[in-house]
Write a structure and sequence with these properties.
alpha+beta
Length: 343
């Protein structure tokens, strides 16, 4: 499948549509959400866009697992007997096991548009440090999003070219809308047709102009994609608004609205990472970004793949828990959608 260097939003909807169990549909979202500015809160109306139905066959549940020690280093050399998998708290026999060191398929998904200048283009371009740390066989695609996603660089193992593409991105295009959830779903639709181990590195403030109207359905879609999301927040500079006049009621009100918006934004990034077995990073400075990208470069390459056969076909969301010997931390998606009962 050939992916053009730049793909329009309408085209992405047509590529590799996933069908999620029991025909889960996402209703059209039309919401007004605060988009922060330093001086005042701005409002943007989200575009009304239909989302695809997503369905997966989970007769066998696959769980990607990242295991790290107390120093954050990947634990290699673990065997199937070192792992235990629990479905809704009940341990399941592991039917498949693989220590997966295959090349990584990484999508850099960047929040773009004029609003980016509020928190600094350099926070985005520091992602160059991540590409520089990837292995030669790894592949990278670059996607910008505002009101929707746009491919800026196709999935390729030409890492030098991807770094050049990142440095040359223009952030003047796009819209004030930051439709995070809608854009993420469209990227997942495209990724469904891409074979191999896949990770989205989401570099974003976490602000979503059009949050999902049915959060549980949205979470089910994200989980069913089996794509890990590693989120890097870029909002620290934006949170540090200029000092306000002490007796300015409007300034105090705007400050309170911004604070609330960013609490929600941080929670959005954390929930995405937790649900998909990823991690979230809130760098405080350039050194923090470098440390985050160094860890991400290790995570995208190494994981264990476990599989089990679900014992219950009830069409419901089941919790997943994985434990591993000698592990200080085990990351994996938190749930899966069981198949519906047979007719």
């Amino acid at each position: 499948m050939v992916i053009p260097g730049r793909m329009q939003t309408d085209s992405i909807w047509k590529v590799g549509l996933i069908d999620l169990s029991r025909g889960v549909f996402f209703r059209r979202a039309l919401l007004l959400v605060i988009l922060g500015c330093f001086a005042a809160a701005a409002f943007c109306e989200a575009q009304e866009t239909p989302a695809p139905a997503i369905r997966v066959d989970v007769s066998r549940v696959n769980v990607g697992v990242t295991v790290t020690d107390g120093h954050g280093k990947f634990l290699s050399g673990l065997a199937q007997s070192d792992f235990h998998v629990f479905d809704n708290g009940v341990e399941q026999p592991i039917a498949g096991f693989l220590a997966n060191d295959d090349p990584a398929q990484v999508v850099l998904m960047l929040e773009c548009g004029p609003s980016l200048r509020l928190f600094g283009i350099e926070n985005i371009r520091r992602a160059d440090a991540l590409i520089a740390r990837l292995a030669p066989q790894d592949k990278v695609a670059i996607v910008c999003y505002s009101s929707g996603p746009s491919f800026q660089f196709p999935l390729s193992d030409d890492l030098a070219a991807s770094r050049m593409a990142l440095r040359s991105l223009s952030f003047n295009a796009g819209f004030a809308n930051l439709d995070l959830s809608k854009s993420l779903l469209q990227v997942l639709v495209w990724l469904h047709s891409v074979p191999g181990k896949k990770t989205i590195v989401l570099i974003s403030s976490g602000i979503d102009s059009a949050p999902p109207t049915i959060p549980d359905d949205y979470k089910s879609a994200i989980i069913a994609s089996e794509v890990r999301v590693l989120a890097v927040s870029t909002s620290l500079s934006l949170k540090k608004s200029p000092k306000k006049r002490k007796h300015d009621p409007d300034s105090r009100a705007n400050s309170a609205e911004l604070k609330s918006a960013f609490v929600d934004a941080d929670a959005t990034l954390k929930n995405l990472a937790d649900s998909t077995g990823g991690r979230v990073y809130f760098p405080k400075n350039a050194k923090g970004y470098d440390k985050a990208y160094a860890e991400i470069a290790q995570i995208v390459r190494h994981e264990y793949n476990l599989a089990f056969t679900p014992q219950t076909f009830d069409g419901k969301l089941h919790t997943l828990t994985v434990t591993a010997k000698r592990a200080a931390r085990v990351d994996h998606r938190q749930a899966y959608l069981a198949p519906p009962p047979p007719n």
